[in-house]
Amino acid sequence: MSRFLFVVPPLTGHVNPTASVGGELLARGHDVAWVGHPGTLEPLLPDDARIFPAIDDLLEADIRAKRERWLALRGMAVLKFFWEEFLIPLGHAMVPGVSDAVARFGPDVVVADQQALAGPVVARDAGLPWATSASTSAELVNPLRTMPKVDAWVRDLLHDFAGGDIRFSDRLVLVYSSAALVAGEFGEEVAFVGPALSHRAERVDFPWDWLVQRDARLVLISLGTLNGPAGERFLSQALEAVGGLDLRAVVVGEPRPAPPNVLVLPSVPQLALMPHLDAVITHGGHNTVCEALAHGLPLVVAPIRDDQPTVAAQVVDAGAGVRLTYSRARAADIRSALESVLDEPEYAAAAGRVRASFLAAGGATAAADRLEKVVAG
């Protein structure tokens, strides 16, 4: 049996795929460990998961504070802050902890999230093979290709940090999507394994009796961390949009006044909820989009920043949803888009085709197969 070390940032959406793949490797008898922020990892991993610290609570709180400032930015300031204030400093901060984990655990393979830059650096210096866990497919198509000066600036930052562009391994890149969503030509090292959803721990309560109170369609509204006034505006418009419809909606957010057919909760067991849903309204987070499509659910997508516009374009190009403008969409726009994806069968049919491609890709099982081949050389 082999030993696999997952290196992850303190971000739930980046940990979740590794929980599934790591769980599959554990089920096969391999030794698996994670290195990152224990407080983020523990609720998302199996009870007996082996965790090494690379981020303490103080640093994690600083990262959260920086994220709040990042969410308030617009335009190129978003990208500049993301790289200079978050990604590169996080890489430097995690190197000592990742180095310690490698020394103590002795992995055969390091599996690094694409935003955990310390993983490739430490693996390279230790002479270990490493694979990339691509928690979003957006960077694979290089969204900066139309801005060569910005692209060169990012590559210069990576060169200063690591001596080169280490975002993606030349041995294996696990992509939790499929060619049905991500267009392009890629090398043999890129493995489209589809969403990794098995072996996931969801330790969130939910009032399941609420689901059977009425025989009506059910919609999830999940917008990630609300972006200040713009986020509050969109959510209020979304609540107004669904309030007059013959359906129920579950909204992920802080408690607030809502129509009687709407349930607002700070967190939900999203995977467990998916089989009960008919559609999803989202900001375009890669995990939420792919989890919805893995269940054949059409989407209304209102992207905000980062990879979300690319993910939204993937959904629209696949025919599986409608895209809205986050900063301008009104209740009537949201209602019309939602009625379209619910009532026009072509959206559900397209989502079903993407679902079929995800099933064929293999999920955590296929990812574990590919990782075992890295050990075998």
Core attributes:
2 domains, Rossmann fold, alpha/beta, 6-stranded parallel beta sheet, 7-stranded parallel beta sheet, 377 residues
Structure write-up:
Helix content is 46%, strand content 15%. It has 2 domains: 3-194 and 362-376, Glycogen Phosphorylase B (Rossmann fold, 3-Layer(aba) Sandwich), CATH 3.40.50; 208-359, Glycogen Phosphorylase B (Rossmann fold, 3-Layer(aba) Sandwich). It has helices at 12-27, 38-41, 57-71, 76-105, 118-126, 148-162, 228-243, 270-273, 286-294, 308-318, 331-343, 345-361, 363-376; strands at 3-7, 31-36, 50-53, 109-113, 130-134, 173-175, 190-192, 217-222, 247-252, 262-265, 279-282, 299-301, 321-323. The chain is globular. With 377 residues, it is of the alpha/beta class. The two termini are 14 Å apart. Helix 7 links the parallel strand 8 and strand 9. The mean pLDDT is 92. The protein has 13 helices and 13 strands. The strands form 2 sheets. The chain has a 7-stranded parallel sheet with strand order 3-2-1-4-5-6-7, with helices on both faces. One of its GO terms (molecular function) is transferase activity. It comes from Lentzea cavernae. This is Glycosyl transferase. Keywords: Transferase. InterPro entries: Glycosyltransferase_28 (IPR050426), UDP_glucos_trans (IPR002213).
